[in-house]
Amino acid sequence: MAQFLQQIVNGLSIGSVYALMAVGYSLVYSIMNFSNFAHGGVIMFGAYFGFFAMTLLKLPFLAAFALSFTGTALLALLIERIAYKPLRERRAPFLYFIISAMGASIFLENIVIATIGPTFRTYPKVFSRTAIALGSIAVGRLDLIMFFVSAISLALLVLFIEKTKMGKAIQASAYNMKAAALMGVNTDQIVMIVFILGGILAGIAGVFFGMKYTVYPQIGNITTKSFVAAVFGGLGSLPGAVLGSVLLGIIETMVAGYLSSQFRDLIAFVILIAVLVFRPSGIMGKISEEKA
Amino acid sequence: MDAYLEGILILSGINLIAVMGLCLLTGFAGLFSFGHAGFMAIGAYTAAIFTKMLGLPFVFGIAASAVSAAIVSWLIGMATLKLKGDYFCIATLGFGEAIRLILDNFQGLGGSRGWPGIPASSTLLNIVILDIIGVVLIANLVRSRHGRNMIAVREEELAAQVAGINTYKYKMLALVISAAYAGVAGALLGHYMTFIQPKMFSMVKSTELTIIVIFGGLGSISGSVIGAVVLTFLPELLRVVDKWRLVAYGMAVIAIMIGRPRGLMGGFELTPASFRKLFAERKAAREIKAASRLYSDDDSAQGAGR
Fold first, then answer.
1. What residues of A are in contact with residue B80 (Cβ under 8 Å)?
2. Interface of B with A in 182-241 (CB under 8 A)
3. Does this complex have an ipTM over 0.85?
4. C-beta atoms surrounding A196 within 10 Å
5. Distance (Å, rounded) from C-alpha A269 to C-alpha A260?
């Protein structure tokens, strides 16, 4: 039982970081109906921003953290302006968006390899590595902080989307972009805001991921998993993305703990295929219909 | 021939086969795959089982690789082709990664350390022969009724459906054929390298193939052929700036999408007929020029006579 609870705790902590990434994916998907594969690159940059802010600029953790998510928000916005806006204006089919996103992702990964190099880097120690004992289970300080910061960021995001006028406009655009534009919503601005929000979450996720593991140029590949989580929960649905991520995190740690750590990565894709076959709209996704 | 040059030619020939299949799937049927490296892996391992383990001739290995990849793609197609485009592309991504991870963990075929000692049966000759067969088959398919139906599905699926085209069937056909091509390419790759490893068939490989198709121009077979050869040679020429190669690659992909979304050839085909047409146009232009000169000479002569 203790081991089971321990796995749940570990799963929750990793799942919460997946959730940060998956929500970024889902936000863009809900507005623009395409899978933003450049998101992984933005997360990777977030990890590097935080790392260099702390090692080169010697900033304290909170400042580095803020710098990192400001940087990724700008980066995400820049990618939107350069790689997607011209396509949006041309009303290009989604295929072109995906390819452009792929190009951006290749570019981001390789510019880091070419300039900084492919070496693995470790974050300086910020939090004490001694775990907090809660009865029979041990919770890492970093895990705990990861979980709470992720939960707070996601709660703020939900508040923003549910309670503000801008959030309502995002909801309207997700429902029907054309109609929202006719009702006076500045959809171009909405797209920018969505990318900024996704970028902020990507920065937070990048820093945490880099702290928990290491920083390296291929870190963005991990986002294929958050992407799986987004599909699992239902593409385009924010609560779905969170739920899918947390479930994926727990399932992964369970598989690693009880079966074999080698199947850890495999299970994500098995879930993906199973979801696509049996329930393509995910746990709580909007019903996917071809818009004619 | 120089062994180095021959090696690059062989690799571009192998890429060409995989790209031909993707050209049909992405360029003509409008489906986007992130998992074709997975089909290549299936082909490579199946062929190696046939030639290395069972000791059968290479031809059987190639045939088996095409069939096995086609069967797997058919199963995947049944599960996902009825979904909207984006989901299909996600499913292929999941499938491609799953295949790689399964092979990584399956010790019977070498696991993640790879599987050495595959007979070196791929030669430039048999690759060129397969390339020619592959291109001719696709070129004929595309110009048949089936090919036109695929294009209709790509252009406007709903309209194609209304016009009575079984869109599911044609998407499936494109998927199965492209997977078989990828399988053959995988078999050839394995028997050229004499060593296969799951890592060779990662998502990066799938992406690379798709980029070649886009670079060549969606819906152009000759574009894909040129793309496969150019983009296999290019990295070799750019060895000196190796690190920056993929940076430029990424930028180029975005630039193509924004500036020239139809790619290098963009629906235009290099065929004997198109050459004839080009020459005929040149000839016509020359004749018009000559005639106009004649006319103006005439004109000036008249003027002088007056």
1. 276-277
2. 203, 207, 210-211, 214
3. no
4. 17
5. 16
Please tell me the distance from the alpha carbon of residue B103 to that of residue B45, in angstroms, as a whole number. 9
Cβ within 8 Å, pair A94-B79: no
Q: Do residue B91 and residue A272 have CB atoms under 8 angstroms apart?
A: yes
Do B276 and B238 belong to one domain?
A: no
Mean predicted confidence (pLDDT) in A19-24: 88
Q: Which tokens go with A96?
A: 């072109």
Percent with pLDDT over 70 in chain A: 97
Tell me, yes or no, whether B129 and B187 share the same domain: yes
Could you give the CA distance from residue A212 to residue A196 in angstroms, rounded to a whole number?
24
Domain hosting B235: range is 3-259
Q: Give the distance from residue A132's alpha carbon to the nearest chain B alpha carbon, in angstroms.
A: 35
CATH number at residue B78: 1.10.3470
Nearest residue in A to B259, CA atom: A86
> Are residues B275 and B244 part of one domain?
no
Q: Give the count of domains, chain B.
A: 2
Which residue shows structure tokens 């000479």? Answer: B297
- Asked if residues A32 and A191 have their Cβ atoms less than 8 Å apart, the reply is yes
Among the partner residues A276, A289, A292, nearest to B90 by beta-carbon distance: A276
CA distance A53 to A41: 18
Asked, for residue B264, whether it belongs to a domain, the answer is no
* Domain identity same for B140 and B201: yes
How far is the alpha carbon of B252 from chain A, nearest alpha carbon, in Å?
8
Position B266 in a domain: no
Interface test with B, best of A102, A252, A286 (most B CBs within 10 A): A102
Does one domain contain both B297 and B182? no
Chain B residue at shortest CA distance from A235: B87
Q: Which residues of A touch B104 (CB under 8 A)?
A: 262
- For B176, half-sphere exposure in the C-beta direction (CA atoms, 13 angstrom radius) is 14
Q: Are residues B71 and B94 in the same domain?
A: yes
Residues B181 and B302 reside in one and the same domain: no
The answer to whether A217 and B250 have CB atoms below 8 angstroms apart is: no
The neighbour count for residue B193, using CB atoms within 10 Å, is: 18
Residue A288 has pLDDT above 90, yes or no: no
pLDDT tens track for A225-240:
888 888 888 877 888 8
Mean pLDDT value across residues A67-75: 95
Residues in chain A: 292
